[in-house]
């Protein structure tokens, strides 16, 4: 029997989702993070099995063929997917947070209508660009792709259940925790 709900958190690359998510999860045994599989290379500091399962394209295709994903998507020249197997188990222990983009969010909502969709906005487009450049792992060409993608993603926020702004990460984390507390009782 599942005990928790699915909470999908979306927001453009560089909006600070990773920081917000780790602040939210501090000391919260009732929240777990759904670790996606991806074909992109790890960034400095990322650990296999913590931020993502880093896999080859061949392995990712194998997982698609085995229907191992709840949903998957291809963008910025890489594949990202939510593995099914960990989900049931995590839901028996509490709420599960998914950091996925809007196509994935839509697919999750279709297969789990109870899922709550939360979109994180940057304080401004200029700030998003500044944060992306600060990360230093993005070439000019990739930067252009990411900013175009960010505009498209932000247009999708209209069909999310909640929209929050990440101006100060701790404040944003607290706002999402309040949403979770509210939705958990419904
Ligand atoms: P990044 O490369 O910056 O870690 O992530 C790029 C985008 O992929 C982010 O918008 C993130 O939310 C999304 N993403 C991460 N995991 C998944 C997944 O399993 N499925 C989908 N659809 N998107 C994902």
The secondary structure category is alpha/beta
Morphology call: globular
| Poorly predicted ranges | none
Give the strand tally: 9
Q: What portion of residues is helical?
A: 40-55%
Mean pLDDT: 94
The strand line-up of the biggest sheet is: 2-7-1-8-9
Provide the β-strand percentage band.
15-25%
Radius of gyration based on Cα positions: 16 Å
- The helix tally amounts to 7
Listed once per kind, the bound small molecules are: guanosine-5'-monophosphate
Keywords:
186 residues; alpha/beta; 4-stranded mixed beta sheet; 9 strands; binds guanosine-5'-monophosphate
Task: Walk me through what this model shows.
- Helices cover 43% and strands 23% of the residues.
- With 186 residues, the protein is an alpha/beta fold.
- The protein has a 5-stranded parallel β-sheet, with helices on both faces.
- Strand 5 (69-75) and strand 6 (78-83) form a beta hairpin.
- It is globular.
- The mean pLDDT is 94.
- Bound molecules: guanosine-5'-monophosphate.
- Guanosine-5'-monophosphate (5GP) binds next to strand 5, strand 6 and helix 4.
